[in-house]
């Protein structure tokens, strides 16, 4: 008899179901790829966060502690980013110390500035071509959006405007650039002696009384105060009470004037100070200050010992500036400031 072969039942394989990846797993994979330069070897960013850095001025907190306002730039435009890894090299013999980041880049789109211009008789010789006129107009030309400015002048021979102590208010806060330029023309003259401290008190009042956010005072002078009814301490107290930092510019190309009190007003109110400025440099520096008002960080110098008064401390500050999606930039900027005798503030 033929033998029957018994067939065996072999089950068919079940179709495989695709495995689901968890959201967390996909996220982890994405982060891993990003950390390695992206999928399929995507190159790291090459566009720099910034290309240069400008130094806006100094803020002297003590003989061994000095802060610098700095603004990173990409071309001619302000740039944002995180400041890290600062370093300093000194050119002045016998001076040493360290530097740290004392403030990340703070950005604001709206500027509220009371600009007060020296109109004393000495301006005939320090600014004979009235460069301050063009500089102030260039500052106004950069205003955008809801930014506003006011224009004042000061000297002791003119009758002050109503509610002012020693200043003529040519234009209250406004965004009208035509009106501001007319006011700048009217504020550009030369007569009388210097009442800088009164001018600061007046400008603080104008900058703050409208209740706008982040008001500042921009003050230019070429001389030492000899006519104010207010003292430096009065000017500082008024600015602090109103929350208005004073950015002070000493017009002194030769570096021969003692601006110790002017520097103290700027430093103690949270502003910045700059001197050794010639009239021909005003246009560029007013533009730098507009950059500072819209985007500024802070680097702090801590010296191992206090230099002697009269010393000019020079060197170079360097810092990394980084932003998401851009290459980290290592930027450097030279610095220079005069050590003033602040042992007997007035």
Automatic annotation (TrEMBL):
* Pfam families linked: VWA
Indicate what this protein is called per its UniProt record: VWFA domain-containing protein
First and last residue of the signal peptide? 1-40
Q: Which InterPro entries match?
A: VWF_A, vWFA_dom_sf
Q: Which PROSITE patterns match?
A: VWFA
SUPFAM superfamilies (UniProt xref): vWA-like (SSF53300)
Entry keywords, A to Z: Signal
Q: VWFA domain location, by residue? A: 112-293
Which organism is this entry from?
Deinococcus seoulensis
Q: Which SMART domains match?
A: VWA
């Amino acid at each position: 008899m033929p033998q029957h072969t018994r067939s065996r039942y072999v089950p068919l394989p079940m179709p495989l179901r695709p495995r689901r990846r968890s959201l967390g797993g996909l996220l982890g994979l994405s982060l891993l790829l990003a950390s390695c330069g992206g999928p399929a070897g995507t190159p790291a960013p090459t566009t720099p966060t910034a290309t240069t850095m400008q130094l806006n001025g100094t803020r002297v907190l003590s003989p061994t502690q000095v802060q610098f306002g700095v603004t990173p730039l990409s071309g001619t435009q302000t740039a944002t980013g995180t400041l890290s890894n600062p370093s300093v090299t000194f050119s002045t013999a016998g001076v040493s110390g360290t530097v740290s980041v004392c403030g990340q880049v703070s950005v604001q789109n709206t500027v509220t500035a009371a600009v007060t211009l020296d109109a004393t008789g000495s301006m005939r010789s320090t600014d004979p071509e009235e460069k301050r006129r063009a500089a102030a107009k260039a500052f106004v030309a950069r205003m955008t959006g809801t930014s506003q400015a006011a224009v004042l002048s000061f000297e002791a021979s003119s009758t002050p405007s109503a509610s002012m102590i020693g200043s003529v208010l040519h234009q209250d806060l406004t965004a009208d650039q035509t009106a501001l330029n007319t006011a700048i023309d009217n504020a550009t003259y030369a007569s009388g002696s210097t009442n800088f401290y009164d001018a600061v008190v007046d400008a603080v009042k104008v900058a703050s009384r409208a209740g706008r956010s982040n008001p500042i005072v921009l003050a230019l002078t070429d001389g030492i105060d000899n006519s104010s009814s207010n003292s430096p301490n009065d000017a500082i107290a008024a600015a602090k009470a109103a929350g208005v930092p004073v950015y002070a510019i000493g017009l002194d190309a030769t570096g021969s004037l003692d601006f110790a009190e002017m520097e103290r007003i700027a430093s103690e109110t949270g502003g910045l100070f700059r001197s050794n400025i010639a009239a021909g440099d005003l246009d560029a520096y007013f533009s730098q200050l507009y950059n500072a008002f819209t985007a500024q960080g802070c680097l702090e110098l801590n010296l191992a010992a206090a230099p002697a008064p009269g010393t000019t401390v020079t060197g170079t500050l360097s810092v990394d500036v980084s932003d998401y999606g851009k290459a980290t930039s290592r930027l450097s900027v030279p610095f220079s400031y005069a050590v003033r005798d602040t042992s007997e503030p007035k």
